[in-house]
Every structure is written in C-alpha cells, then in structure tokens.
Design brief:
By secondary structure, the chain is an alpha/beta fold. It is built from ten helices and 15 strands.
Length: 344
C-alpha cells in the first residue's frame, strides 16, 4: 500500500450515527484527534443525521451508503451499524475503492472475514476493525506484569462476564442481528487473551445443552442465548475459557479475567488488578489500579499506517481470530465435538 503524503489529511466518514453511547461522535472525534478530517455521515434515521450536524456543523449527511460513496470524496469509511450488516457494507466500500474500518466485531462468520480480506488485498486497501480496547488500561497493565514473568509461564486464562437478566430489547439482544451473546464482549475478551497467549490456536470447543448454548428462556423471538461457554486450546498446552451469562451475577462482579501461571495468578477487571504469588511458603497478594485507557491509539495507528507506512496493529488477520473462535464455537456445539482451527 503506497502511503499518502505525510502532510495529507485523510477524509473520513462513518456509516451509522446511532444514539447508543454516542458512538458515531466518538469515532469522528478520535479521527479528528489523529489528524483526520470528518467529512460525511450516513444514517437512515433523519434524527441521527440532525444530531451529526449539531455535533459537526460542516459535516455532509446522506440517507444511505450508496449516496455517500457516489457524492463524497471520503477515503476512509468506518462502519458502525449492527453486526450482521458489517460484511455487506464493508464489501460495498471496498468495491468503491475506499479504506474500511468496521466496528467490533469484524463480522459474524469466518467466511465473511475471508471474503473481505481477499477483496481488500486485491485492491491494496486498508481493512481493520475498531478494537479500541486493545489499548485498555487493564490489558496494558496486565501484559506488563505478565511479560515481566511475575506469574511465571502462563497456563490458562479464564474470562467471564455475568449478570442476571433478560436480553436487551435493542438489536444487540437479537441473535440473528448481533451474532449471539458472545459477539459483544466476547470479542474484547479474546483480543485481551491473544495479547497474553501468543502461541497459535489448535482447537475450539463450544459447550452447550441439547445442541444449544444452554437453557433458553423465551424472552422474545430471536433472543440471544442465556449463556455460552467456549474453550480454546493453544500449541504448548495453554488454554482459554470464555463464559458470558445472563443467568447469574457472580459475587466478584460482572466482569473479570484471571490469568493463571506456574508461579502466580493475575486477576483484573476494568478498574483494578490483583497479583498473587508464593514467596517461600507465604502467599503474597498485591492490589493496584490499572493505568488509564489509551484508546486514542487506534485511529492514530490507522493514520500513521496510511500516511507514514507504519505497521498496522489491528490487521484484518488479527480481527479475524476472535471471529474464527466464535464461529467455530457455534459450529462445535452443534457438532458436539471440538473443531480444529483453520486460522491459528
């Protein structure tokens, strides 16, 4: 990919300016902070286009992606629409010769990832996924302690998120749109884990009940599962477990990651960490606060890659790994056996 001139300001757009978490505004603001120029927004909801104009008075607004691509000279398009639309919208942008970022998760299936990767490579275009939590303070703190050998060699990682309650009434609670209960925070957990265990993956197992992830309460038609559990095995014997549930709120809180090593254990949530080691015959526990998040690094890396040829951190191959795990897990629980990894 030939870099743009160093003084070039990339013209950017977002597709989808949803109200949830003000995510459209967040993307455009982070692009601006990285030296990019937000040019356009596309959304099917006129109220959201009005909100975009209020946030960015000079922004161009369009009712759909086709109109944006035909009338705007944007060079980079970020897709922040529901999960099941990422693949077709990203493909439309690539075929129009635009660089593409998709919100997390990249897509829902491995095959969709592969098609997009091939399309981007054939056109020499950037393709990435907004894994801004790759730079969360909790994982930055964790990798420093773990890489320093403070828990010895990593044996396994246990990732859990839990709360008791029904799926949400928005599209995020609908399986056909979201991909299922694992496709939101599950993708973040896997991104964390792959920074800690760098060995290739070997196999994936999705554990379920009677061909399903688990007992399904009839909250609504097309609801996400109540619970899902995945096991990933790596070369060298390390393993990873991931569980997301709506059947319990664990005593330790709704979110935590435990990394078990040969000489200690490191546990963290979004705010704090706990390091436990054995000194002689005495167990020593040190607690601390995670460092600040550095999520602005995502778009700065995109800009540095396109303008200066710096290595891309969240490559499409990196973004495909969590999707491949989730995709194989779903297929595994239907086949009632573990499945070999195709993209280790």
């Amino acid at each position: 990919m030939k870099p743009y001139p160093p003084d070039h300001r990339l013209r950017t757009a977002v597709v989808g300016y949803g109200a949830a978490y003000n995510i459209g505004r967040q993307h455009l603001q982070e692009m601006e902070a990285a030296g990019m120029v937000p040019v356009a927004v596309a959304d099917t909801d006129p109220a959201r286009l009005e909100a975009a104009r209020a946030d960015f008075p000079d922004i161009q607004t369009y009712r759909d992606l086709t109109e944006l691509l035909a009338r705007s000279e944007v060079e980079l398009v970020t897709i922040i629409t529901p999960h099941n639309t990422h693949a077709p919208l990203a493909m439309t942008c690539l075929e129009a010769g635009r660089h593409v970022v998709t919100e997390k998760p990249f897509t829902i299936t491995t095959d969709q990832c592969d098609r997009l990767i091939k399309a981007a490579a054939s056109r020499d275009l950037l393709l990435s996924t907004y894994h801004n939590r790759h730079w969360d303070g909790c994982i930055l703190e964790a990798t420093e302690h773990i890489k320093a050998g403070r828990i010895g060699q990593v044996v396994r990682i246990d990732c859990r998120m839990g709360r008791y309650g029904r799926p949400g009434q928005t599209w995020r609670g609908s399986k056909s749109i979201s991909g299922g209960i694992l496709y939101d925070w599950g993708a973040h957990f896997l991104d964390y884990a792959f920074q800690i265990i760098t060995a290739p993956m070997v196999e994936v197992a999705g554990v379920g009940w009677e061909g399903h992830w688990g007992p399904q309460t009839t909250w609504k038609e097309d609801a996400n599962e109540d619970e899902a559990f995945v096991l990933v095995r790596f070369e060298g014997g390390q393993w990873l477990t991931l569980r997301v549930t709506c059947l319990e709120t664990p005593p330790a809180g709704t979110f935590w990651v435990t990394v078990v090593g040969t000489e200690g254990t490191y546990r963290f949530d979004l705010r704090d960490y706990e390091l436990t080691t054995l000194k002689g015959e005495e167990t020593v526990t040190v607690r601390g606060r995670n460092r600040p998040n550095q999520s602005h690094c995502y778009y700065q890396n995109i800009a540095d890659h396109l303008l200066a040829g710096q290595p891309l951190v969240i490559t499409p191959q990196w973004a495909r790994r969590p999707i491949h795990v989730l995709d194989l897990a779903g297929r595994s629980r239907l086949a009632n056996r573990s499945l070999a990894v195709e993209h280790p």
